[in-house]
Amino acid sequence: MPLDVILLVLFGALLHATWNAIVKAGSDKSLDAALISAGGAVSALPFLAFLPLPQSAAWPFIGASAILQFAYFQLVAAAYRAGDIGLVYPLMRGCAPLLVAATSGVVLREHLSGAALAGIITISAGVLTLALEARRSSGHAVAFSIANAFVIASYTYVDGIGARLSGNAVSYTLWMSLLPPILLFAWASSQRGSLTVLHHVRRNWWRGLIGGAGSIASYGLALWAMTKAPVATVAALRETSILFALVLSVAIFKEKAGIWRYLAGVVIAIGVLVLKLA
Question: Per the confidence metrics, is the pTM higher than 0.70?
Answer without folding.
Answer: yes
